[in-house]
Amino acid sequence: QVQLVESGGGAVQAGGSLRLSCAASGGTFSVYAMGWFRQGPGKEREFVALISWSGGRIGGSPYYADSVKGRFTISRDNGKNTVYLQMNSLTPEDTAVYYCPANPAEYTSMYDPEYDYWGQGTQVTVSS
Q1: d(Cα 97, Cα 8) in Å, to the nearest integer?
Q2: Measured between alpha carbons, how far is 83 from 103 in angstroms, rounded to an integer?
Q3: 3-state class (DSSP) for residue 83
Q4: 52-66 pLDDT per residue, tens
């Protein structure tokens, strides 16, 4: 059973930055594709970014939702069993609980049913 723990959320003003981390345990992290999703207040959960098992070094470049492209960067450190989401130029529309699910496959997509494991999420609040 894979456990995922997100951290790094908090409150920040518009234009600021945050770096989210997601630590994995209980599985073979290095062969899992990972994603970031978020759910804002009163909204459905939505895709943010994904990264393949290799981080794009062997196919499967990171992929982003249009709403975060150019502002967010997903990365991973397989030696630390951790995936990151660097978030820059934050806006109030980025306010949400952020989740980092795992798909026990080398590559994944933006569709959340493909992900088998989910963490509890970390809250990000951006004020104007």
Answers
A1: 11
A2: 13
A3: strand
A4: 987 776 667 899 999
| Interstrand relation of 18-25 and 82-87 (parallel, antiparallel or unpaired) | antiparallel
Phi/psi of residue 42, nearest 5 degrees: 75, 10
Best CA proximity match to 98, nearest among 9, 2, 34, 3: 9
Q: Please report where in the chains the tokens 């630590």 appear, as a residue.
A: 23
Provide the residue type at 44 as one letter. Answer: E
Rounded-to-5 percentages of helix, strand, coil across the chain: 5, 45, 45
How big is the chain by its Cα radius of gyration, in Å?
A: 13
- Residue written as tokens 């494991």? 117
CB atoms within 10 A of CB 68: 23
Q: What region does 10 belong to: left with phi over 0, alpha with psi -120 to 50, or beta?
A: left
The per-residue pLDDT for range 65-118, each reduced to its tens digit, is 999 999 999 999 999 999 999 999 999 999 999 999 999 988 888 999 999 999
Is 90 strand, coil or helix?
coil
Query: How far apart are the C-alpha atoms of 35 and 103, rounded to whole Å?
Result: 8
